[in-house]
Amino acid sequence: MLKKSCEEFLDILGSKEPVPGGGGACAYVGALGIALGSMVGNLTLGKKKYQDVEEDIKELLLKSRDIKIELVKLVDKDAEAFFPLSQAYGLPKNNEEEKAERDKVLQNALIEASNVPLNIARCCCKAIDLLEEYSRKGTRIAISDVGVGVYFAKAALLGAKLNVLINTNLMKDEKLKESVETELNELVAKYSKKADEIFIYVENSITR
Questions:
Q1: Could you tell me if 78 and 120 are in contact, meaning their C-beta atoms sit under 8 angstroms apart?
Q2: Are 163 and 19 in contact (CB under 8 A)?
Q3: 3-class secondary structure, 162
Q4: 4: alpha, beta or left, given left = phi > 0 and alpha = psi -120 to 50?
Q5: What angle do CA 14, 20, 23 make, to 5 degrees?
Q6: What percentage of the chain carries pLDDT values higher than 70?
Q7: How far is 111 from 131, CA to CA, in rounded Å?
Q8: Can you say whether the dihedral through the CA atoms of 129, 176, 117, 76 is positive or negative?
Q9: Which has the higher per-residue pLDDT, 99 or 181?
Q10: CA nearest 191: which of 24, 30, 28, 23?
Q11: Has residue 40 got a pLDDT over 90?
């Protein structure tokens, strides 16, 4: 999906096409967030002033690359997960047998449709951890971009939460529903707060 141009992606996103949707958009925004961290890292490399963190920055860049790659993959995975879900909603329900089969297919589809945005949320949390390091070790001339990146990651995290909940809300497997939502709520609580703290740190670094 992201092999299309940015303009094509936005045009399709804004159309009545079923995919990409909110989940794919979250993955894309998360990838933009960590890419901004990478930019700051690359601007830091080779600078005499930051020689003492050179190896740390190199490691950060490798980790950032892996998260960006995973988030880009999740754009497509979100679209792939939605297809069987949309098919399930369209199955007939004219009698009890059809209703039972539709419900079975729907419940199975909901699992993957929940797992993909949960993985997006996990990646965004990893991105926030790395952006915190960039905020402490990256070049001061581009620290504002860390602040932008961390709020992109936070926005993607919160958006992923909604995309999980709209699916778990229909789950009949209460044990699975509770497990997914518990992890999700813990991630959001911890990393929303952390993202805010990083943003404030960046803002204070600019204005002091």
A1: yes
A2: no
A3: helix
A4: beta
A5: 110
A6: 98
A7: 30
A8: positive
A9: 181
A10: 30
A11: yes
Residue 5 CA to residue 206 CA, distance in Å, equals 34
**Per the structure block, which two tokens stand in for 49?**
């002033």
List Cβ neighbours of 50 (8 Å cut-off, separation of 6 or more). 44, 57, 137, 138, 139
Q: Token pair 């993909």 is at which residue?
A: 116
The answer to whether residues 146 and 41 touch, using CB atoms and an 8 Å cutoff, is no
User: How do the residues of the chain divide into helix, strand and coil, expressed in percent and rounded to 5?
Assistant: 85, 0, 15
Q: Which of 38, 29, 31, 30 is nearest to 142 (CA)?
A: 38
Length of the chain: 208
Amino acid occupying residue 12: I
Quickly state the pLDDT bin for 2 (edges 50, 70, 90): low
